[in-house]
Amino acid sequence: RHCTDTVCCVIFIVVILGYIALGIVAWVHGDPRKVIYPTDSYGQFCGQKDTRNENKTVLFYFNILKCASPVVLINLQCPTTQLCVSKCPDRFATYIDVQASYRYRPDQWNYFRQFCKPGFNNPRKSVAQVLRDEDCPSMIVPSRPFLKRCFPDFSTKNGVLTVANQTTFKDGRGKTRNVTDLREAANGINNVLDARSVGMKIFEDYAISWYWILIGLFIAMIVSLLFLVLLRFTAGVLFWIFIFGVIGIIGYGIWHCYWEYDHLKGIPGSDLTVYDIGFQTDFRVYLQLRQTWLAFMIILCVVEVIIILMLIFLRNRIRIAIALLKEGSRAIGYIMSTLFYPIVTFVLIAICISYWAVTAVFLATSGEAVYKVMANQTLCKYANLTCDPETFNTTNVTKVCPGAQCTFAFYGGESLYHKYIFIFQLANAFVFLWLVNFAIALGQCTLAGAFASYYWASRKPADIPLWPLFSSFGRAIRYHTGSLAFGALILAIVQLIRVILEYLDHKLKGTQNSFTRFLLCCLKCCFWCLEKFLKFINRNAYIMIAIYGKNFCTSAKEAFFLLMRNVVRVAVLDKVTDFLLFLGKILVAGGVGVLAFFFFTQRIPVFAQEAPTLNYYWVPLLTVIVGSYLVAHGFFSVYAMCVDTLFLCFCEDLERNDGSTAKPYFMSASLHRILGKKELSPKKA
């Protein structure tokens, strides 16, 4: 063993160090509070500790009618003054009415002024000036907080939209308006609030049933283990039952088509051809023709003959595939620790996802507060220009545009760092893809090395290393980090291109340029096929790296040509393996799912009292089914890697050895018998 692809290894290490540096820079400049806390018109966070807004956790909009939709309120900036308040309004009120009743109802002013700008306490100021300077809102409506923002408290009464059981309100500008005018400003908010209610019920269901969900996943793990162990004895039986079942079903189809064909004999109109009646939208018309059933019968006969001929000519290869599946089950039985290696891969990928997500958030919040002129007059020449709130009052903007204000707009910046944030985000995504693919490659190479040590052991299990999985992991890290990084790099480049193509396709969906859409569709298809091909090549290259310790390119070339020399065996083994593992996943997920259904619906008398009372029984049920499928997929992915490794070792064994005393085979006795060898040749010690 020696280090392979050292240049790529060095580059990989440098990139990781650079990725760490990028994260540090993002963490220094970024501020996730910009995502957690809403920001008022002065660029200050609502609810932030040790600030004057510490007890003001909700954002209030002076004139919500200016906001087009909740999307604008949440993601962009609504063109009205935004203020941090301690709670949302709980009543209808207008500044005009509050000012008029100030002398004999000062309590109304004291309530209303908490929604005015901090420090404003002049109820005698004219209404026109207050509204021009936006010292106070013209009106307040009963609201409730959602996403830390005040939205009108909509409800439906007898099919009529209301706010606090009222259908009209005063807008504070001398008009009485219908509450439906608020609907556009808060479009879809009821659906979102209903979704929040459903979300709370789902959360309650998880809180009650999490213990039973874990038990269900544990049962799925046990069933998956049993299935893999029993494949040693049932692989052939399951496969041949399926094959003869398919042959039987097709045979029944041929008989049924002949029966229909004979039954229609003599019926008027049944001897017409498809050409005679032309195209019909009601396809049942074609079923009244003898020609239709004759065509179906011929097609099924052809399929039946093809399947039978394939079984005849590929019978030995099918037997080899089944023997390799049984050998894989036996290998896993000797190296049980491999079944739990996917947990390591999962942890590594979880770390990569967490680091990428945190870095992306900090990069997205790296900007400084940008302020812009907000003017009530649409023709103000200073509108939407950047401004400085500290010096704004000394400029002539307020004279040219009365009522104009310098308010917070968004987070950004003009420095070199801020200009390249998009590039940094791309780099963050690219390195993330590279690291994830490296974690997967490390797992594949580690498992391949462990199973290869089983195959090439002269006496099984005596010659298997003491800790094959840990030894293989150590070899992969110590000698082949560069090769694994090289394969992961190629795949990451293709995946990044696919991400960019998806982004462009999303942006150009509205375009009418047919050629552009066609070109993008072709590119997406080509790169999808390229990614699938590269994954296949990489997987087998990692196996060859684990066996021989050569560099990535040499291993990929040797694996590719080795597979091409055994292409029929590859195809047969791949399909047989896919079928059995898919059957196993369905068996595990379906069996545990049925058990969970009867349990959570309290249909098992023994556990009826133990079953929790749920809002939606399908919440834990779907979780158990999906979780069981993922658990089975994790175990079966190890089995698939085992079979692929043993297959490459088997092909290498056939090409390198001839079964003589000098070059004995390392394959199992069952494979020897399939190849026509009556007994094993003595192996070298």
UniProtKB/TrEMBL annotation:
UniProt main location, coarse: membrane
The keyword Transcription is assigned to this record: no
UniProt keyword annotation of Ribosomal protein present: no
Top-level taxon of origin: Eukaryota
Bilayer topology: Multi-pass membrane protein
Transmembrane segments: 7-28, 210-230, 237-255, 293-314, 334-358, 431-456, 477-501, 579-600, 621-641
Assigned keywords, A-Z: Antiport, Cell membrane, Glycoprotein, Membrane, Transmembrane, Transmembrane helix, Transport
Catalyzed reactions: choline(out) + n H(+)(in) = choline(in) + n H(+)(out)
Purpose of the protein: Choline transporter.
PANTHER family: CHOLINE TRANSPORTER-LIKE (SLC FAMILY 44) (PTHR12385), CHOLINE TRANSPORTER-LIKE PROTEIN 5 (PTHR12385:SF42)
Protein name: Choline transporter-like protein
